[in-house]
Amino acid sequence: MAAILRALQQELNNLPSQERRIAEVIMQSPSDIPGWTISHLAEQSGTSAATVTRFCKSFHFKGFPDFKMKLAAELSHASDETAYQDIVAGNSLSKIVEAIEANHLASISDTTRLLDLGRLEQTVQLLCQARRVDLYGVATSSIVTQDFYQKLVRIGKSCTAFSDSHMQITSASSLAEGDVAMAVSYSGETPETIDALHCAKQAGASTISLTSYGSNKLATVSDIPLFTSSLEEGMRRGDMASRIALLHVVDILFTGMVSADFDRFIPRLEQSYHNVQSYRVQHNGGA
C-alpha cells in the first residue's frame, strides 16, 4: 500500500468527521483522485474546498495539487513494489538475505518519493548557516543522530547529539536565534523528543523534525517537517527498514550541505580525513 494511503488508514479514526469523509472517499478510489478537481472531491465527500485544503495541510501537503501530485507518483510505482517482508520461523539464510535487501530497497525507494525538495532545500540552507546544531533522538533514533553528528563534526559544524532526555532539554534551553535543533523519531510521538524540540523552538532556534510519514506531534511542533516511508503495521523488526530510511535522509542532507558550500566544507572534510589517517599510522601502524 502507498505510504500516503497507509497514513490515511492509520489516522482515519483520529480525524474530524468531515476530514474522515474525505479520507474515506480517497481510499475508495485512489487512482481517480489525481484527475479530480478540489471541488469534485469536496462534492463527493459532502464537504467544502476549504475543508479539503485543511485536510491536505494536516497531512503536511501544501494543498490539494501537491497532494494529487505525490499520490499519483506513489500510485505509478505501486505495481513495481514488493511488500515488506517480516521475520518468520525457519527461513533459510538465503531467503533472509533476499528479504532484508528487499525491505531496505523498498524503504529507500518509498522515502525518496515522499521527499519534498523545497523542504530539503530549506533544511540544507538552515544547517549550512547555523551557528550551532542540536540533534535529539532516543533509542534507535539516537543511532541516526549520532551518525549525522559524526558527519557534521567532520565539516567543522558546532554540533552535539543528545540521547538523554534531561540533556536534550538542558541544551535546548540554551539555544537562540541562528541555532538549529533537529529531532529524529520514527513514530513522531516520543514524548522526550517532542518536549526537547518544543523547548528549542521557544528558545528561538529553527526546528526540524524527521519522522515517518503521517500526522504526528513532532512534525507539528517543527518549523520544517521531513518524512520517511512508513512501514506496514505489525512488522516485528520494522526498526531495521525504518533506520535505513532515516539514514537515507541524513545522507541526502549532508551531501546537500557539502555541495551547497563546497569551497568551505570540502577542505575541512579532507583535513579531517588526513588527520585521522595520520593518527592511525602513528598509533596503529596503519591498521
Automatic annotation (TrEMBL):
The keyword Ion transport does not apply. It comes from the Bacteria. Residues 123-263 form the SIS domain. Residues 2-78 form the HTH rpiR-type domain. The keyword Membrane does not apply. InterPro entries: Homeodomain-like_sf (IPR009057), HTH_RpiR (IPR000281), RpiR-like (IPR047640), RpiR-like_SIS (IPR035472), SIS_dom (IPR001347), SIS_dom_sf (IPR046348), WH-like_DNA-bd_sf (IPR036388). This is DNA-binding MurR/RpiR family transcriptional regulator.
